[in-house]
Amino acid sequence: MAIRRIIRAVIMGPPGSGKGTVSGRIVKSFELTHLSSGDLLRSNIKAKTELGLLMKSCIDQGQLVPDDVISRLILAEMRYMNNSSWLLDGFPRTVNQAEALDNEFSVDTVINLDVPFQTIKQRLTSRWLHLASGRVYNIDFNPPKIAGLDDITGEPLTQRDDDTPDTVNRRLKAYENQTQPVLEYYRSKGVLETFSGTETNKIWPHIQAFLLKKLSTEKEKVGGKA
Ligand code: G5P
Ligand code: MG
């Protein structure tokens, strides 16, 4: 479905909660531009940019990269998307980052994936990734058609350096300490919508229905124009 009104959305949730997976479905159904902070950082690491090399050890240790670095990087990318609908995945992740975003853009809706930590730990060790596109697979949940290869390009899949059990624990701690306050920030602004569950396939229809409803309400507000 083509969106004829600009919508600016953020998807949040702990590491491994399915942000990338759900973003893929939102992009397919609603044609928003997806911007993932993690994908952007990993492409800098792969390209061995100065920023990528500086940030690699932070990411490998499961720590957040500094607010000013990531805010500058994301906001610079976003200036190219000024007139399109977008979906931010992995940004903002601290209250400082949320304020930096607010200074330049207003957010219409925040989709929060509430998935138990125990479920997440099992998922991440079986995740495989196509680095160039950010497409994610899981050997139990959505395996590639040919083991080890991306469905679309046929290129090799890789595993993330930060998906080891120790690093996953550190990422979950960083989420509790630094990212959960962002949920409160958006709740107080009245834009937070939480979806709880342990399976993406069960959560997804609720998100899809929510977005459809949100878009039709917004269309009514602008006089019912398509
Ligand atoms: P990222 O890249 O933003 P995280 O840690 O927020 O990383 P991650 O790991 O990318 O989040 P996700 O996108 O929420 O997880 O989840 P996903 O990839 O869709 O799904 C996880 C796995 O589960 C996949 O294999 C998927 O197929 C499978 N799966 C999905 N649903 C189901 C299901 O129902 N059942 C099963 N069995 N499996 C399922 O950030 C990485 C690092 O970059 C830095 C930080 O260092 C961060 O740790 N960073 C930032 N630092 C500061 N500020 C920021 N804004 C930063 N952004 C990134
Ligand atoms: Mg992700």
Helix content: 40-55%
What fraction of the residues are assigned to beta strands by DSSP?
5-15%
CATH architecture heading? 3-Layer(aba) Sandwich
Mean pLDDT: 92
**Total number of helical segments?**
8
User: What is the structural class?
Assistant: alpha/beta
Largest sheet: 5 strands, parallel
Subcellular location: Mitochondrion matrix
Function: Involved in maintaining the homeostasis of cellular nucleotides by catalyzing the interconversion of nucleoside phosphates. Has GTP:AMP phosphotransferase and ITP:AMP phosphotransferase activities.
Region (NMPbind): 36-65
GO molecular function, one term: nucleoside triphosphate adenylate kinase activity
Explained architecture:
The protein is an alpha/beta fold and 226 residues long. The chain has one domain: 3-Layer(aba) Sandwich (Rossmann fold), CATH 3.40.50. The protein has eight helices and seven strands, in the order E-H-E-H-H-H-E-H-E-H-E-E-H-E-H. It has helices at residues 19-30, 37-46, 50-60, 67-78, 95-104, 117-124, 165-189, 200-221; strands at 8-12, 33-36, 86-89, 109-114, 127-130, 135-138, 192-196. Strands 2-3-1-4-7 form a five-stranded parallel β-sheet, sandwiched between helices. A two-stranded antiparallel sheet has the order 5-6. It is globular and about 45 Å long. The model is unreliable at 222-226 (pLDDT under 50). Residues 19-20, 36, 38 line the site of magnesium ion. P1-(5'-adenosyl)-P5-(5'-guanosyl) pentaphosphate is lined by residues 13, 15-21, 37-38, 41, 58-59, 62-65, 70, 90-91, 93, 97, 123-124, 127, 136-138, 140-142, 162, 171, 199-201. AMP binds at residues 37, 42, 63-65, 90-93, 97, 160, 171. It is an enzyme of class 2 (transferase). GO terms for molecular function: GTP binding; nucleoside triphosphate adenylate kinase activity. Its main location: mitochondrion. It catalyses: a ribonucleoside 5'-triphosphate + AMP = a ribonucleoside 5'-diphosphate + ADP; GTP + AMP = GDP + ADP.
